[in-house]
Design goal:
heterodimer, A: alpha+beta, 4 strands, about 45% helix, globular, B: mainly alpha, 8 helices, about 90% helix, rod-shaped, disordered N terminus
Chain lengths: ~90, ~280
């Protein structure tokens, strides 16, 4: 699976890691649902630590990612906007 | 439970949003070649934008650097004032100077934290700019290959692949620029406020007293001290009556006792002065 960490680039992770990431992502989701910024920062931090253990994609790769992880210091509001079409992504 | 979350997971949904943006852009294009060229133009613009972003962050960082230096100097000055005040037996002034120094140090550590943040932002943006550059180069090569080699149907698939990859990168970089700009704007607002503080002297003035009153007080004490000394000297002269004055006069002339030789020597220069005149005449 190819993952992108916003602001950091893309990594390739094996299936086992992908499953772990998905489990960690549940915490991100629930932190956003509960509007709990502290929990979000902690959950994102854990997710990113694991994600960064993947192999960075070569810089000249043009492959789209399977999943995209928000940046580490994202606020609840920013994550919400990332999840909408009118959100943070320009153009 | 996990299974029901996974399809709607945050990271999956974010990637779908990115993909839908790319697809919308693709759908707007009628001719695949148009897509490639248009996208390439956008990429070049984005590269310029991210480079400008890096430069802007660097400018903000340098401004902070300047302010940190200023506050550092101020802090050093306050420490010297505290020492001077203590030397003059004015513990109250020394205490005041040290309390202001503490407040300047507080500002400084605040700025240092911001500085580190900007440095991190600059680093990230620089890397993003390098990544995008490499991808844009790859895209350009692939664009020419696609145009030259493939049939229309093949081209469409390959274009879509290349396009969604680069478009994701563009979205990411675009967001990174936006975030850096926001942070820079915040810092600049704060930097502006600190410039005003520095200009108004408020940083030297934690207590709301007039600007640099510590130095004024020290100066006054210094001036007062030397005036006292002057007064003492004058008083001494007056108290000593005529005699001290004569001694003073004799001291001033240096060789008052040797007046006759001085007079003699005074005539001597007149003589050598004449020969040049003669020379001039001749």
């Amino acid at each position: 699976m190819i993952i992108r960490i916003l602001g950091e680039g893309q990594f390739r992770v094996d299936d086992a890691t992908a499953a772990e990431l998905q489990a960690l992502d549940v915490d991100v989701e629930s932190a956003v649902e509960r509007n709990d910024q502290g929990a979000l920062t902690a959950a994102l931090g854990a997710l990113l630590v694991r994600a960064r253990q993947g192999t960075p994609l070569p810089p000249d790769s043009l492959e789209p990612s399977d999943v995209i992880i928000p940046y580490e210091d994202a606020t609840i509001d920013e994550v919400r906007k990332l999840l909408t079409d009118e959100g943070l992504i320009p153009g | 439970m996990k299974g029901s979350y996974a399809p709607m997971s945050v990271m999956k949904r974010v990637s779908l949003i990115f993909k839908s943006k790319a697809n919308k852009a693709l759908d707007r294009m009628e001719d695949p070649r148009e897509t490639l060229d248009y996208s390439y133009q956008r990429q070049l613009e984005m590269l310029q934008k991210v480079r400008r972003g890096v430069a802007d962050v660097a400018t903000s960082r340098k401004r902070l650097e300047l302010q940190m230096n200023q506050i550092n100097q101020q802090s050093g000055k306050l420490e010297k004032q505290a020492r001077d005040a203590l030397g003059a037996g004015r513990e109250d002034l020394a205490r005041e100077a040290l309390s202001r120094r503490q407040s300047a140090q507080g500002q400084l550590s605040d700025l240092q934290a911001q500085y580190a943040q900007l440095q991190g932002e600059e680093e990230k943006l620089t890397l993003a700019s390098q990544r995008l550059q490499t991808k844009v180069d790859t895209f350009r090569t692939r664009k020419e290959t696609i145009k030259a080699t493939y049939t229309a149907a093949e081209a469409q698939t390959r274009i879509n692949e290349a396009f969604s990859g680069i478009s994701e990168e563009m979205g990411d970089v675009g967001m990174a620029i936006q975030r850096a700009e926001d942070k820079t704007a915040q810092m600049q607002a704060r930097a502006g406020a600190i410039d005003e503080l520095l200009a108004s002297g408020a940083l030297e003035d934690a207590s709301g007293m007039p600007r640099d009153d510590i130095q004024a007080e020290l100066d006054r004490m210094g001036a007062g001290g030397s005036i006292d000394l002057e007064l003492e000297r004058l008083k001494g002269e007056l108290a000593g009556g005529e005699a001290p004055k004569e001694i003073g006069a004799a001291d001033g002339a240096g060789a008052a006792a040797a007046e006759p030789p001085a007079a003699a020597s005074a005539t001597e220069p007149a003589e050598p002065a004449e020969p040049p005149k003669r020379d001039d005449g001749a």
